[in-house]
Structure formats: structure tokens, C-alpha cells
Amino acid sequence: MTQAPGWTRLPDLACRSVGGGVVWANDELFAERENLIRKPEPQYQTSTFGHKGQVYDGWETRRRRDTGEDHAIVRLGLPGVIKGVVVDTAFFKGNYPPFASVEATSAEGYPAPDELADWETVVPRSPLEGDRKHHFEVSAHRRYTHVRLTIYPDGGVARLRVHGTPVADPDLILPDALDLAALANGASVTACSNMFYSDPSNLIAPGQATVMGEGWETARRRDDGNDWVEIELAAPGVIRLAELDTSHFKGNAPGWASVKGRDRTGAEFDVLPRTRLQPDTRHRFRIDDSREATHARLDIYPDGGMARLRLLGSLTPDGLRTITQRFHDLSQPLG
């Protein structure tokens, strides 16, 4: 089996769990468009028939009897720079589209689907096969808010994954009240000791985890070490409140945890000293240190799972400039 590209480790900007939505499709007779952005891997059960035929966990259009193609528009839950796209035709074997393309656009506010314009091709028309994942690297380096999947001429696609780096809109940021570790604000996981059960990016995802699998969980340790994850903050800032959430982790929560900050010189300092944790609990700790941080490291002792990490605080003037400049640099149309 071919190994997935490294960019598939980046967040899925389109996923329903981060706020994505399939806002329009020209046809969805056999299977609903919303399935395209569901987080779970596609499932299939033989001989499961509804009123319109075999039930598929994906988006499936009717057979075309005329010229043309089918389209679906996805609003990204996390607008940002797209690094790669996965078009997954899992379980679509005799009814997959032979070709697909992906376009993207950047829109202000909350436009209706028919108000979107200035589409740019990020994945040109490319051949597809049935029942497999197709990985397409994207080179366009700018911020997008929507993507449009086109299939030629018709058929079924199980999932559309849009992996990339979120870019926050500075007009929607309050510099004095911000989660500096939030994926939506531009933070990212840069290193991790172990991701056996789940991805550490889940720690900084939007919203509350609804099940254990939506957090970060490591394998059981059989040595004297401990597990950890490093995060590059959205921009330089001062951490005022730390939230360590072990919700849903009951027999596998860490016994203790600590948080360290790192400044632009590389110097580390304690944000939260090693502190005892309880299972299935949202822990909130007031932070009195006023030093600027650019990175943070969460250590859990010795191993286990954490649902979310929130580092609430304020941007420094340099931090606000960083977020503003990032947005403007990545909002220019491709020339």
C-alpha cells in the first residue's frame, strides 16, 4: 500500500467536525452531499437497500443522459491555505466518476452559493479509479474559504478531504481575549512523542470533544518516560488561563500534566507546573506569569489521553501584527 503524503497529517479544513458544510450540489439523488465531509472513514454494508437503491456512505448523483458534469460546493470550516486534497471513491466500484477536478475561492462574509465567484483551479481535471483514495498536492499559496468539487460526468465520491493550514481573519479576533493555541486562530502542532490512537491536532480543534476518539491519546508506556506535544501558538502572546480537558478519558486519563512556554529566544518557562489531573474533567488554571510565549509544550505523565488544550490570553502588539500580516499576505489573488 502506498504511504499517504505528509500533508495528510495537516488538519482537514473542510471536515464537518471543524464547521465545514456542503452548501450546494446540483444533484444528490442516490446519496446525500453532506456525506462528503463526514469525519469517520466511509462504511459499507452489503444488501442495504433504500427507496433509491443500495445505500452508500458518500455523495452519489444519478446517471447522466445528457452532456455535462456534476458539482458540489463546500464551505471550509477553517479557511486557510490548502496543501493537498483527497478524493476518496471508497466502495464506489461500478459507479465512480472517471475524472474529477477541484476549484477554490476566497469570499468575504457569508455569501450564498450562487454569489461565489472567481474560482481558481487547485486540482486540474484528473483521472480517478474506483474504491481508492486519490491524493492531489496543491501548490497555490493563498487563503481560501470554499472549494468546488466537479465530477465528470456523474457518479459517487465517498469523502473529500481538504488538508491545509488555517489562517484567521484579524477582523474577527479580539487581541485581549484569544485562545492562543486554537487551530482556528492559526496555531499548529509541531512535534509529538506519540500519536498511536489519535492525532494530537485534535487537542486544539474547535468545539468540545463528544467522544474519546476526538481527543489525543497515546499508547501505554512501559518505561520511565512521559508523553508530550509541542504547539506553535497562533502568534506571540501572554497566556492568562490554561484549560486541560480530560473529558471522556476515564480509565486512561493522565495522572498529571504540566505546560511550558517558550519565547522567541528559545528560553523555556513554566506556565503550569506539574499538576494532578482527574479523569473526565475540564481543568482550568489561572496563569500569573506575564511573559510572552511563541510556543507551548504540554507534558502528560506518564501517558494517556486529553480531549482539548486551551491556552487563553492576549496577543502582544507584535502578535497582532503577525496575524494581520499573515492574513493579508495570503488573501491576494493569484497573479
TrEMBL record:
It catalyses: allantoate + H2O = (S)-ureidoglycolate + urea. InterPro entries: Allantoicase (IPR005164), Allantoicase_dom (IPR015908), Galactose-bd-like_sf (IPR008979). It comes from the Bacteria. HAMAP family: Allantoicase. Its EC number is 3.5.3.4. This is Probable allantoicase. Belongs to the allantoicase family. It comes from Saccharothrix carnea. GO terms for molecular function: allantoicase activity. NCBIfam families: allantoicase (TIGR02961). Residues 19-166, 186-314 form the Allantoicase domain. Pathway: Nitrogen metabolism; (S)-allantoin degradation; (S)-ureidoglycolate from allantoate (aminidohydrolase route): step 1/1. Keywords: Hydrolase, Purine metabolism. One of its GO terms (biological process) is allantoin catabolic process.
